[in-house]
């Protein structure tokens, strides 16, 4: 899937060494393409006050777009 920068995505896999976990929403801030490898993205996660918690790099298969079911 080709995500656009600054899109919101949902994390599909826990990151044990970081705070984000499955279901957390982040914003794509960088795209990483290396020929022959899966595309990766830097994803920034925020708290409720919009303060950055962490920025992590994940493969595109560990992310998905939010759906209507994800909204309260």
Question: What does this protein structure show overall?
Answer:
With 72 residues, this protein is mainly beta. It contains no helices and five strands. A five-stranded antiparallel sheet has the order 4-3-2-1-5, with no helix packed on it. A hairpin with a 5-residue loop joins strand 3 and strand 4. It is globular.
SSE inventory with pairings:
Blueprint: E1 8-11, E2 25-32, E3 40-46, E4 52-59, E5 63-64
Antiparallel strand pairs: 1-2, 1-5, 2-3, 3-4
The major sheet is characterized as: 5 strands, antiparallel
Query: What spatial form do the alpha-carbon principal axes imply?
Result: globular
Whole-number mean pLDDT:
92
Through-space gap between termini: 25 Å
SSE ordering: EEEEE
Name the strands of the widest sheet in spatial order.
4-3-2-1-5
Oligomer: single chain
Helix percent reads under 10%
What is the alpha-carbon Rg in Å? 12 Å
Total count of helical runs of at least 4 residues: 0
Determine the strand fraction and express it as a percent band.
Answer: 35-45%
Q: pLDDT below 50 for ≥5 consecutive residues: which ranges?
A: none
Number of strands: 5
- Computed structural class: mainly beta
Features:
72 residues, single chain, mainly beta, globular, five-stranded antiparallel beta sheet, 40% strand
